[in-house]
Amino acid sequence: MSESALPYIPHQAPMIFIDELLECGIDHAVAKLTIHPELMFLEPQGLPTWTSIELMAQTISLYAGVQGKAQGQPPKIGFLLGTRKLHLPFPYFPLHSEVQITVHKNYMHDNLGMFQCEIIAQEQTITAVLSVYEPDSTESERQGL
């Protein structure tokens, strides 16, 4: 399975940091990003790895979008509540390199979730645990989201 991630996420350019949905299951998703010159935050050395938090968060959004589509729902906005255990072993993703992002759902209850996240790039691994929140539809409408 390899398809565009765009139908499953609420993000719009220039804030799109994943290209493809590679796999999605009941408790995980795998996405891919090719580092290209149009990416926001790109520097001469490449894309800073501190953006990994956003890559992971968008892959969680992708996971939620696939699950929502199965129930006939459009992609919804979500919020990053926190990041723990972030490990960045190198400073940049080089231009034109491929990055694979994997998220595993550890916990989900009442719109709150926790995901174990992993990025593989340059034969190294970036890891973190992200806590997220997805407001329900009525709450989103009330807040104008």
Task: Write the topology of this structure.
Blueprint (H helix, E strand, L loop, with lengths): L2 E2 L15 E5 L3 E7 L12 E2 L3 H19 L8 E9 L4 E2 L4 E12 L2 E10 L2 E10 L3 H7 L2
Antiparallel strand pairs: 1-2, 2-3, 3-7, 4-6, 5-9, 7-8, 8-9
Can I get a quick summary?
The chain has 145 residues and is α+β, with helices and mostly antiparallel strands.
Feature tags:
145 residues; alpha+beta; Thiol Ester Dehydrase, Chain A; seven-stranded antiparallel sheet; two-stranded antiparallel ribbon; 2 helices; 9 strands; 18% helix; globular
Task: Explain what the structure shows.
With 145 residues, the protein is of the alpha+beta class. The chain has one domain: Hotdog Thioesterase (Thiol Ester Dehydrase, Chain A, Roll). The protein is 18% helix and 41% strand. It contains two helices and nine strands; from the N terminus they run ββββαβββββα. It has helices at 52-70, 137-143; strands at 3-4, 20-24, 28-34, 47-48, 79-87, 92-93, 98-109, 112-121, 124-133. A seven-stranded antiparallel beta sheet has the order 1-2-3-7-8-9-5, with helices on one face. Strand 8 and strand 9 form a beta hairpin. The longest helix is centred in the middle third of the chain and has 19 residues, at 52-70. The chain is globular and about 45 Å long. The termini are far apart. The model has no long low-confidence stretch (mean pLDDT 94).
